[in-house]
Design a protein that fits this description.
The chain has 289 residues and is of the alpha/beta class. It has two domains: 125 residues, ATPase, nucleotide binding domain (Nucleotidyltransferase, domain 5, 2-Layer Sandwich); 149 residues, Nucleotidyltransferase, domain 5, CATH 3.30.420.40. Helices cover 34% and strands 20% of the residues. The chain is built from nine helices and ten strands. Strands 3-2-1-4-5 form a five-stranded mixed β-sheet. Strands 8-7-6-9-10 form a five-stranded mixed β-sheet. The chain is globular, with a radius of gyration of 19 Å. The chain starts with a strand and ends with a helix. Bound molecules: adenosine-5'-diphosphate and zinc ion. The site of adenosine-5'-diphosphate has 16 residues, from α5.
């Protein structure tokens, strides 16, 4: 028997099969199109592998409370065709004897980084992605944190920089953190895609101002042992140091943290934290039995 992982993104679904010692034996990436077409391709990939458990880390927002009828569903996503899609229901239908572990993509990544990545050996961390959107997963006492739903740190509010007049890209809040600082805002402000912006462009100081501020808020609210940054925008090698500096400046010495270059780092499992976390969640479910 095997375990599976599905990192369900708005652009692609990364699927992996491992044996129960976590050795990956097959992996693929499936474009996210309509739910029917995408699920058919997922089921075809996993067909040769009878699985005891599958960990799913999904784009969101998702229904995560087992007591609610929306559990296992994707909720108000802008992704066409996926609104209110019952993903766990569809997987259970196909694999009635397989345990499904359902969480957010960023929760899975936080878990992967805690167990095998940048926060290895710690019992708490926050993982934040800065990509097409901004989202963060929280691990506390070694377990994923959730309450009435999953945290939506990407949509928290930040103090606007006095010189910033950009309206923001969030369809709900306009100038929340994601609206002011996710990848699309870089292009929205400058007309240049993030990956093509020069290192000496002044936009990076503004970017660091907002991300640094968000990390101050996370630290003051959750006091995690470590904060890990990933996502496309963090491919800018100079950005981490700017964020660390903005964090120190805005924290203003109020709360003691570990040295900032240990406390705030980039991911140790680039592009693999999510799928690794999905497999770990499945493996643990099997081990509990
Ligand atoms: P997603 O969030 O959709 O999973 P990514 O994490 O790859 O995907 O993020 C995509 C976003 O990151 C886009 O807005 C893109 O312009 C931006 N991006 C990708 N590479 C870079 C880079 N090297 N520097 C700055 N921004 C980048
Ligand atoms: Zn928002």
């Amino acid at each position: 028997m095997y375990i599976g992982g599905i990192e369900a993104g708005g652009t692609k679904m990364i699927c992996a099969v491992a044996d129960e010692s976590m050795t990956v034996i097959d992996q693929t990436s499936i474009p996210t199109t309509s739910p029917a077409e995408t699920l058919a391709a997922i089921f075809a990939f996993f067909a040769p592998y009878p699985m005891r458990a599958v960990g799913v880390g999904s784009f969101g927002p998702i229904g995560i409370d087992p007591h609610q009828s929306t559990y296992g569903h994707i909720l108000a996503t802008p992704k066409a065709g996926w609104q209110h899609m019952d993903v766990v229901g569809a997987l259970k239908n196909q694999w009635p004897d397989t345990e499904i572990i359902w969480t957010t993509d960023v929760n899975a990544a936080a878990y992967g980084e805690l167990r095998l990545g940048a926060a290895k050996g710690k019992s708490s961390c926050v993982y934040m992605t800065v990509g097409t959107g901004i989202g963060a997963g929280v691990v506390r006492d070694g377990e994923l944190f959730q309450g009435i739903g999953h945290p939506e740190i990407g949509h928290t509010f930040v103090k606007r920089h006095p010189d910033d007049t950009y309206p923001g890209t969030c369809p709900y809040h306009h100038d929340c953190l994601e609206g002011l600082a996710a990848g699309p805002s870089l292009e929205g402000r400058t007309g240049i895609k993030g990956q093509d912006l020069r290192e000496d462009h002044p936009i990076w100081d503004l970017q660091a101002y907002y991300i640094g501020q968000a990390l101050v808020n996370i630290t003051l609210t959750l006091a995690p042992e470590k904060i890990i940054l990933g996502g496309g925008v963090m491919n800018q090698p100079h950005l981490l140091a700017k964020i660390q500096e903005a964090f120190v400046q805005q924290m203003a010495g109020y709360m003691e943290t570990p040295p900032v270059n240990e406390y705030i780092t980039t991911w140790a499992l680039p592009n693999q934290s999510g799928i690794t976390g999905c497999l770990l969640l499945a493996q643990e479910k099997v081990a509990q039995k």
